[in-house]
Structure formats: structure tokens, C-alpha cells
Design goal:
single chain; alpha+beta; OB fold (Dihydrolipoamide Acetyltransferase, E2P); 2 domains; five-stranded mixed barrel; 5 helices; 17% helix
């Protein structure tokens, strides 16, 4: 198997291929082991279907593109995966992109797994707009976090409907209108509600603010803009998501 456009996309993300291997087992919804003993974890996405699509790839030869320099604490190395499609004339296919396109997964960003997030976004967007897979399930439709007003954010999650209290500790995709912005020390804030000590808040560092400015957006310029942010929902006087990279934020048209 040789890399094609999909492989070129991975290289453009800054990733390098390692030796090919054959999938021996799937250990859950996002981890694989190869016949040569390597253990891999899908980087950049989270599978959210009831049936594990990874079992369809047992015995498949793949090319891993590691997204981290070393394995995580469980011994699995985060990686993007290229495989040869049996239904597309053996054309190499980017596994994460395929899962997103068919609505089997959503983009899941970790601090050490940011590679390729922007390259994958169009695949997720297409599936969402078409209502494919997980995006056609009631438990994934937008639901109000607090009061059902147009200015309130909504919570989108693979694990069901949440109110604010239940959302804490889970990975969420939040969309809302930025009503105000602020800063305190090293932190910058995007507030989705009038009471910024209780309503939903996005918190980012000055470094992320700088990278946003490189894309033509200022902190104050985000006021009255609708944004979508994803990350672990925390509780800090109100629900909050920390943004460590601009890939977590989408500024809606």
C-alpha cells in the first residue's frame, strides 16, 4: 500500500508514517493492537456508535501515523491510520476521515492530539449537515443547558442529553452567542450569559488569543458572534470549557 492524497493530507498535518502492520484485535471503541505487538489509539476522533466499527478492520493492513511521541499511560500510542479500501480499488483511505464522513465519530481534541483537527473538520461538517449516523440520533440533537432562549448555548454530546450539572466532566460541543468578553491575568474569557460567574464560559490563554489574532479575530471582535467550542465541561462558578488550541473553536458564519 502506498500513500495517496489521504497520506499527503497526513504529512501536511506534520505526521510521518511508520512501518505497516496488520490489525490483530480491537480493544474497545478507539484502541487497536497489531500482530507485531504495537498498540494504537485512534487520534483526533471519538467513536460514538453503539456498534464498534473497528471490528470490521480485523486482519486489515494499515499504515500508522503517530500523533504523539510516546504511548499514553495505558501503553497505547495515539495515531492516525491509513488503510487500503477493499471497495475503492485498494485506494488508501484515512480511517479517521472515513469514520467522520459516515457519522460514526466526532472530532475529539486533546492537548497532545491536535494534529489534523482542522483537516478533519470538513468531514464531520458534511456528516452533520446530512444527518448521518450519530447526527441523526435524538440524543445528539442540541438541547438547552439552561433556559431555552436563543442566546443560550446548547450541549451536543455522544452520551446523551445533559443539563449543566450532568454535563460537567463530559466532553461537549457547545454553540452559543458571545455576549461579552473579558480578561484576568493570563486568562481570557468568552461569556455566553449575562452572569459570567454562573453562565457558560469559554476560557483561553493569551497564547490562544494571539493565535486567534493570526487568523484575523480579536477577543473583542468575537462579541455578538456565534461560536462553537468543544472540550471537557468543567465547573468553575458555572460550566466552563478550557481552550488550549484554536482548533477547538469554530466561528459560525
Amino acid at each position: 500500500m502506498t500513500a495517496n492524497a489521504a497520506g499527503n493530507d497526513l504529512v501536511e498535518c506534520g505526521l510521518k508514517p511508520t512501518d505497516p502492520g496488520t490489525i490483530a484485535a480491537a480493544h474497545g471503541m478507539d484502541t487497536l493492537s497489531l500482530q507485531d505487538g504495537r498498540k494504537l489509539k485512534l487520534a483526533g476522533v471519538r467513536i460514538a456508535t453503539s456498534q464498534n466499527p473497528l471490528t470490521d478492520f480485523l486482519g486489515q493492513t494499515i499504515i500508522p501515523y503517530p500523533a504523539a511521541k510516546k504511548p499514553d499511560r495505558t501503553g497505547f500510542t495515539p495515531a492516525h491510520i491509513l488503510f487500503s479500501s477493499k471497495t475503492e480499488n485498494q485506494t488508501p483511505v484515512w480511517l479517521q476521515q472515513k469514520l467522520l464522513q459516515q457519522g460514526s465519530a466526532f472530532i475529539y481534541i486533546y492537548p497532545d492530539q491536535i494534529s489534523c483537527a482542522n483537516a478533519l473538520r470538513s468531514a464531520e461538517k458534511t456528516a452533520r449537515q446530512s444527518g448521518l449516523g450519530i447526527w441523526n440520533l435524538d440524543l445528539l440533537h442540541p438541547t438547552p443547558i439552561s433556559t431555552p432562549k436563543d442566546t443560550q448555548p446548547f450541549f451536543l454530546s455522544s452520551v446523551g442529553h445533559f443539563d449543566t450539572d450532568r454535563a460537567v466532566g463530559h466532553y461537549g460541543i457547545i454553540r452559543g452567542l458571545v455576549l461579552s468578553t473579558g480578561s484576568a491575568g493570563r486568562w481570557r474569557y468568552l461569556n455566553f450569559g449575562r452572569n459570567y460567574t454562573q453562565d457558560f464560559t469559554v476560557r483561553l490563554t493569551a497564547n490562544v488569543e494571539k493565535r486567534l489574532s493570526e487568523h484575523g479575530f480579536t477577543l473583542k471582535g468575537l462579541k455578538d458572534r456565534t461560536i462553537e467550542v468543544r472540550g471537557i465541561v468543567q465547573s468553575n462558578g458555572g460550566p466552563l470549557i478550557d481552550v488550549f488550541d484554536t482548533a477547538q473553536i469554530v466561528i459560525m458564519e
